[in-house]
Amino acid sequence: MKIYLIGSGMAASAFISSARWLQQRNDEFESLEIETLARGADLNSIAPAPDDLLIIANPHALHAPAIAAADNAGFQWIICEKPVAISKEQLSQLTQIKAQVFVCHGYRVQWGPRLIKSYIESGELGELYAIEGHYWQSSAAQRHINPNSPSKGWKDDTKLSGGADVLFDLVPHWLDLVCYLMGDAPAYINVNCYRNDPKSFRDSHVQVNCDFLGGKHSIGSVSKMAHGFGNELQVRALGSHALASWNFERPDEITVAKGHDQKVIKRTERTIGSGMPSFHSLGWLEGYVEILSQTLSAIKGRPYRSLPTLTESTKIMTRLFETMEKETL
User: Which of 5, 38, 106, 242 is deepest in the core (most CB within 10 A)?
Assistant: First the structure.
């Protein structure tokens, strides 16, 4: 088994750190080899083994072509960063993919969302009728206050970014989490965008509202314009019997409310992600460790916990692109 990695940024570094963590914690992965590939590397020259894994962590607009090229080169296992595509035309490249492709949506695979999902499926929340919440960062707010301070990066290049910012960088995470809890892709997505960046294509704040079959709805505020916030994601599942909420900044607890009362449930299990005790976990890396470890289990033919798939992501992105075509964003 060998891991090939395309990318050199934060996501690529997170995967390398996750692999090293697994090597230190599990003798089975001690000899796991990782080879980094240059952007645009010829994947057909690799001749991958059936248990080799390709991780795609390059800029947004390069994801879909890389998935298609890897599948054509014979890779059977792929992990790809979000979004899987930046247009309907790119989605068309992914309709005949034979490889098993998992998508790096690292929030929904963590303990809190998995527990809330179990409450929804068991009926403990009653009839689920809405998912609401926010996903807030402040990078665009910082650019607005001091536009000369950030150095130019790949997100300023539409050929690499895909011509959007929050819509492609954060909204896919939010939609994946919502759809995971709802159990399906939305029937319709409505988005309203605000731009404060000098580059008009960089949307800074997006309101995302979704309609689901059965009269269910979701409301989300997704932003890089939220002054004072680092990386706060809070999601609430509203049911007829109870409400359950999770905040990424407090990843090892969820709150369940019934009527006027609420209680905090703290994580005690240590099987998901890094396996560290509650309130001593790896933060942002937890999702990467979980996705990588469960993918490696799948490759070895062992039981593994559910992961975000290419099929799920393409359904969600199809709805998003339909909205982007119809509306002035």
Answer: 106
